[in-house]
């Protein structure tokens, strides 16, 4: 897809500049962060996991139901990211939301989203994603009622398709499967219509007497779009070993350093596992990227227990992680006799970044924090049976094995 000049022309019934001055939105939204430092978030190398968050009973729309989990960097400096979640049960009424800080990538987990944008309308179901670029005004309706999902926000850059490299021209997410809206507009008087703008992590409101969704036509390449994750064409090893998760990248926000992403959006879709003489689950590892995982539906291959749709986990830079004890023992018990196996009825995903995340206090103190997460690895036992060598290690000379 590449980074090039992005712009769109919007042909409006009335200019968007026709509004009253912005004022701080009251009551203040205390759980949105766009600049991460010691005053509002904490660094922790501990593996973290959250159980699915309950949807509130009190009327809550998308704006009020959005809250930050973690992130790094600053929207003021135009570099960084934030990871949010949302829980809502009410459609937005007579108002629109605008994010001046960055681009939103929204992953609904429960309930469809009917999103009206200045370019048109998009229905986004669980199993699909939607990207709302910085500056676009939008409104979220909830046709199914209660809704829950995940949001990644990036500052100062945009998402694009990854370089396919040796894969060639086809595979992973195909450009043809990304859908943009068709122009749709509403006209007439709308007294007291509110534009809620997120600016520097704070919310401001401006009133106007008409809908911002008054664009009768548009053209350009800076536009909201959606993607059905079931269209993804996964790649995997077909003989031995386990591929790195980057092979499942749907979209990436690159940095100036080749091969290093500000944010990757990676999925773990239904697929076949066929590797021989291989520990097939994701192996135990540490790496330079920090990984926030969510589960849309089904289960996740590396966690037999405790990781449910609507839940989340965070494994930060250089913190070890991998399959839980049950998954490990079940895999070892199969030995080398495991035949081809299809992982079905699942969709997990990962937001992965080279920047180390700081975690918000309400996320660390959440009643949905799984404080026993570490227990899933405590039961791991050694299957090492020793090496066939002399007790005095005389089989080795100067670090090199002796030929017999």
UniProtKB/TrEMBL annotation:
Homogentisate binds at residues 300, 321. This is Homogentisate 1,2-dioxygenase. GO terms for molecular function: homogentisate 1,2-dioxygenase activity; metal ion binding. The keyword Repeat does not apply. The active site is at 242 (proton acceptor). One of its GO terms (cellular component) is cytoplasm. Belongs to the homogentisate dioxygenase family. The lineage of its organism: Eukaryota, Viridiplantae, Streptophyta, Embryophyta, Tracheophyta. Pathway: Amino-acid degradation; L-phenylalanine degradation; acetoacetate and fumarate from L-phenylalanine: step 4/6. It catalyses: homogentisate + O2 = 4-maleylacetoacetate + H(+). Its EC number is 1.13.11.5. The gene is LOC104218786. InterPro entries: HgmA_C, HgmA_N, Homogentis_dOase, RmlC-like_jellyroll, RmlC_Cupin_sf.
């Amino acid at each position: 897809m590449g980074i090039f000049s992005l712009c769109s022309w919007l042909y409006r019934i009335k200019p968007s500049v026709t509004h009253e001055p912005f004022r701080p939105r009251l009551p203040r939204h205390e759980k949105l962060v766009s600049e991460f430092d010691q005053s509002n978030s904490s660094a922790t190398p501990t593996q973290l996991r959250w159980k699915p968050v309950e949807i509130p009973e009190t009327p809550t729309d998308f704006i009020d139901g959005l809250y930050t989990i973690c992130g790094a960097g600053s929207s003021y400096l135009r570099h960084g990211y934030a990871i949010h979640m949302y829980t809502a049960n009410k459609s937005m009424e007579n108002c629109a939301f605008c994010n001046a800080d960055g681009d939103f990538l929204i992953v609904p987990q429960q309930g469809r989203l009917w999103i009206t944008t200045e370019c048109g309308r998009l229905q986004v179901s669980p199993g699909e994603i939607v990207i709302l670029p910085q500056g676009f005004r939008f409104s979220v309706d909830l046709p199914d009622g209660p809704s829950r999902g995940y949001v990644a926000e990036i500052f100062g850059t945009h998402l694009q398709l990854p370089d396919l490299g040796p894969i060639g021209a086809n595979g992973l997410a195909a450009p043809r499967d990304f859908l943009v809206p068709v122009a749709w507009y509403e006209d007439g008087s709308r007294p007291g219509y509110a534009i809620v703008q997120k600016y520097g992590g704070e919310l401001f409101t401006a009133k106007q007497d008409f809908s911002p969704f008054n664009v009768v036509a548009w053209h350009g390449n800076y536009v909201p779009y959606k993607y059905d994750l079931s269209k993804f064409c996964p790649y995997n090893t077909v003989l031995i070993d386990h591929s790195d998760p980057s092979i499942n990248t749907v979209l990436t926000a690159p940095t100036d350093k080749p091969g290093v992403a500000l944010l990757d959006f990676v999925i773990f879709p239904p697929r076949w596992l066929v590797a021989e003489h291989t520990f097939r689950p994701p192996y135990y590892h540490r790496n330079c990227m920090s990984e926030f995982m969510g589960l849309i539906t089904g289960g996740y291959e590396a966690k037999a227990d405790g990781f449910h749709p609507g839940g989340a986990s965070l494994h930060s830079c250089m913190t070890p992680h991998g399959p839980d004890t049950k998954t490990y023992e079940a895999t070892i018990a199969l030995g080398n006799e495991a035949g081809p196996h299809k992982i079905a009825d699942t969709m997990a995903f990962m937001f992965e970044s080279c920047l180390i995340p700081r975690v918000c206090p309400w996320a660390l103190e959440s009643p949905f924090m799984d404080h026993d997460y570490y227990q899933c690895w405590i039961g791991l036992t050694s299957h090492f049976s020793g090496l066939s060598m002399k007790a005095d290690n005389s089989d080795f000379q100067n670090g090199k094995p002796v030929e017999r």
